[in-house]
């Protein structure tokens, strides 16, 4: 396995990667240069400088892209997901650094520090021009109450500020121990003396502050954006700073980085740093180490800690869920080897102890199993929901409440243009996977090796004829299971066979009188 590191990350992260795999560090590559070399790598590790485009991913064999930091707006997530490339990030390591930088910018704004420094270095002793304002008692608007927003709020409370915050997605418990008032965006805009932004750049946050929002703000408001360029409309900001409506603004991030052509840089009431929010030694070591560990986990097929485009399971739950993930994938594969038809819906029904867990990954594994037999594109836990959606397959998850310790049972009900069928499985002690029903037939199959399934009429002689045919062709039967709907009615037989079953023998089995269908399932 080979890993390409295409931005500067801390050596501590590279050392971790190097202990397991070959690592090449090649920075400042153009898109075309990356396209040219990416084919020989299994993993790519970036910070924010490398733009990981669909073109770069298109002909790559990448299994994972690691982002040493929080924001993944430099990675085309849709293209990665479509291609089944797992994206992981390191969201925790730079929270302190970014929140401290925000507070530094807040103070620099309030006390005119950059301009005062510049003036004195130009040998001018001007104390009148740089009269500041105090933070104590002022209102800070915090837009986005995630990791960094909350940390900024706590630090600002320590400075005696009152906090008004806006985050429509916040969970109450996350902020109940912080002395802040959560309000709507308009209230933040109208009432705050300072406003700081800590949201990701998304369709809903792009230009969330423009001409209209500036007009709602207090005269002389001060703004800080240490999150992402594009959240504040830079043209409107230029006008608001020029007119004095906004007395001062501190930007660490810009719509286009580096912003060397931006007229904003010429304004004296604009403070700017070159995307330094995460640039502390501590944060850089932390994010590089975190992302390196996750990239290795991904390459080894282990559960990662910080997936961006795949469902996340807490490590404590993963060991319990894992056997069901494997089982569901086999059930999906079992189903599409057994039946065909245009699938319109897959319903995953959970009962017993599994019902109390986060089953999203099990559902995704079931879909992966289903798609693995019908699509050219290899399905995995990253792209399976996307591929299913693309094919118009509706996925339903249902949990049925049962007594506390009933064994976990998963039923996969598949609707196609040819009807509805199902397969049911469970996991016994020691992670022993079993398929326990196909449609209404109760069976007990270990999903392993080759299994011959026959659908036939329950009548004397059929089982013997199949056995004789297999014996004549030197095919050993490992075990046999029988199920029937009624006496002499429709029946199912499952035979575990030790050898492969050639197509001509399968055709002969299908010709046996009373036989409706015979299918070889391979695991
Ligand atoms: N300047 C830097 O170097 C630097 C360093 C680290 C992080 N960042 C950036 O800081 C931002 C915050 O990072 P984080 O780690 O706190 O992320 P986070 O995911 O923990 O928090 C983001 C918060 O924004 C909220 N949010 C999303 N859409 C919103 C909307 N439309 N309106 C209001 N709130 C909304 C979410 O509910 C969430 O609580 C990100 O943009 C990240 O890329 C910048
Ligand atoms: O890599 C950096 O220095 C910036 C990282 C920061 O913007 C982030 O989103 O984590």
From TrEMBL:
Family, per entry: Belongs to the D-isomer specific 2-hydroxyacid dehydrogenase family.
Entry keyword set: Amino-acid biosynthesis, NAD, Oxidoreductase, Serine biosynthesis
Pathway it works in: Amino-acid biosynthesis; L-serine biosynthesis; L-serine from 3-phospho-D-glycerate: step 1/3
Primary role: Catalyzes the reversible oxidation of 3-phospho-D-glycerate to 3-phosphonooxypyruvate, the first step of the phosphorylated L-serine biosynthesis pathway. Also catalyzes the reversible oxidation of 2-hydroxyglutarate to 2-oxoglutarate.
Species whose genome carries this gene: Biomaibacter acetigenes
Catalytic reactions of this protein: (R)-2-hydroxyglutarate + NAD(+) = 2-oxoglutarate + NADH + H(+); (2R)-3-phosphoglycerate + NAD(+) = 3-phosphooxypyruvate + NADH + H(+)
Example of a GO MF term: phosphoglycerate dehydrogenase activity
Name of the molecule in the record: D-3-phosphoglycerate dehydrogenase
Enzyme superclass (EC): oxidoreductase
SUPFAM superfamilies, alphabetized: ACT-like, Formate/glycerate dehydrogenase catalytic domain-like, NAD(P)-binding Rossmann-fold domains, Serine metabolism enzymes domain
């Amino acid at each position: 396995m080979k890993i390409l590191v295409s931005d500067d990350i801390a050596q501590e992260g590279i050392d971790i990667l190097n202990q397991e795999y070959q690592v090449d560090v090649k920075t400042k590559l153009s898109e075309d240069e990356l396209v040219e070399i990416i084919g020989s790598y299994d993993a790519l590790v970036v910070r924010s400088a490398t733009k990981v485009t669909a073109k770069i991913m298109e002909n790559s064999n990448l299994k994972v892209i690691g982002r040493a930091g929080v924001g993944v707006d430099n990675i085309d997530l849709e293209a990665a997901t479509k291609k089944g490339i797992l994206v992981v990030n390191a969201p925790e390591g730079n929270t302190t650094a970014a929140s401290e930088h925000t507070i530094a910018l807040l103070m620099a704004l309030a006390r005119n520090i950059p301009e005062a420094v510049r003036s004195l270095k130009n040998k001018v002793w001007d104390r009148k021009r740089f009269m500041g304002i105090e933070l104590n008692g002022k209102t800070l608007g915090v837009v986005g109450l995630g990791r960094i927003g909350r940390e900024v709020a706590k630090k600002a409370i320590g400075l005696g500020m009152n906090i008004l915050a806006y985050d429509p997605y916040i969970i109450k418990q996350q902020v109940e121990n912080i002395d802040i008032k959560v309000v709507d965006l308009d209230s933040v805009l109208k009432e705050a003396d300072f406003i700081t932004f800590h949201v990701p750049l998304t369709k809903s946050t792009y230009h969330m502050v423009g001409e209209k929002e500036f007009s709602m703000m207090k005269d002389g408001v001060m703004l800080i954006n240490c999150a992402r360029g594009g959240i504040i409309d830079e043209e409107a900001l230029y006008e608001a700073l020029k007119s004095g409506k906004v007395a001062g603004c501190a930007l660490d991030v810009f719509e286009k980085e580096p912003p060397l052509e931006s007229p904003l840089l010429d304004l004296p009431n604009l403070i700017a740093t070159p995307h330094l929010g995460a640039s502390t030694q501590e944060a850089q070591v932390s994010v590089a180490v975190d992302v390196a560990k996750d990239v290795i986990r991904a390459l080894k097929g282990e559960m990662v800690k910080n997936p961006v485009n795949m469902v996340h399971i807490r490590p404590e739950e993963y060991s319990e869920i894992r056997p069901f993930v494997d089982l569901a994938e086999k059930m999906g594969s079992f189903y599409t080897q057994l039946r065909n038809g245009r699938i319109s819906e897959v319903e995953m029904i959970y009962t017993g102890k599994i019902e109390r867990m986060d089953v999203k990954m099990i559902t995704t594994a079931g879909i992966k199993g289903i798609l693995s037999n019908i699509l050219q594109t290899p399905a995995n836990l990253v792209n399976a929901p996307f591929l299913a959606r693309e094919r118009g397959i509706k996925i339903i998850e249902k949990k049925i409440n049962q007594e506390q310790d009933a064994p976990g049972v998963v039923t996969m009900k598949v609707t196609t243009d040819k009807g509805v069928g199902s397969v049911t499985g469970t996991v016994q002690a020691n992670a022993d996977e079993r398929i326990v029903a196909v449609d209404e037939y109760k069976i007990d199959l270990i999903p392993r090796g080759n299994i011959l399934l026959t659908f036939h009429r329950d009548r004397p002689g059929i089982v013997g004829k199949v056995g004789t045919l297999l014996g004549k062709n030197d095919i050993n039967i490992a075990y046999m299971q029988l199920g029937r709907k009624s006496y002499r009615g429709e029946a199912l037989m499952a035979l575990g066979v030790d050898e492969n079953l050639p197509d001509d023998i399968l055709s002969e089995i299908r010709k046996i009188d009373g036989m409706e269908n015979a299918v070889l399932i391979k695991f």
